[in-house]
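Below is a filled-in request sheet from our internal design queue. Each sheet records the structural input a requester submitted and the sequence that came back. We keep these sheets so that new team members can see what a complete request looks like end to end.

REQUESTER: design group, bay 2
PRIORITY: normal
MODE: inverse folding
CHAIN LENGTH: 123
BACKBONE (tokenized):
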């Protein structure tokens, strides 16, 4: 109850999990959290087969919370990690745009496999 509920969701998840861990409600190690992440991923896959948007959203939220806990166990700031991943993706996407322009190609001319080949080249 001492955590401000209107924080950004990622920050709220991290603070909430730290608070729970401080009273002993936590996994013993990161490997156990990885198991939880895999469990939540499987539950999300199962929810997707039901085609129930509310259930899918619930399971995706559970997965994101588990990944936040994994970051905490790995002593990684999940906000910083996500910002870094966003920057990396944006940089690569911009390079893909430049590559397509240099090849006089439009996005609509290429299927996803051709775009993926170029993406891998950029990586």
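RETURNED SEQUENCE:
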């Amino acid at each position: 109850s001492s955590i401000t509920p209107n924080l950004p969701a990622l920050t709220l998840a991290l603070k909430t999990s730290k608070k729970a861990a401080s009273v002993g409600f936590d996994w013993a190690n990161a490997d156990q959290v990885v198991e939880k992440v895999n469990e939540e991923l499987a539950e999300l896959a199962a929810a997707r087969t039901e085609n129930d948007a509310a259930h899918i959203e619930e399971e995706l939220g559970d997965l994101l919370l588990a990944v936040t806990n994994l970051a905490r166990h790995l002593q990684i700031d999940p906000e910083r990690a996500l910002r870094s991943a966003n920057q990396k993706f944006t940089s690569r996407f911009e390079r893909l745009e430049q590559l397509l322009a240099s090849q006089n190609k439009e996005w609509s001319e290429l299927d996803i496999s051709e775009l993926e080949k170029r993406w891998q080249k950029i990586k």
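SHEET NOTES:
- The chain has a mean pLDDT of 95.
- Residues 10 and 79 are 7 Å apart (CA to CA).
FILED BY: M.R.
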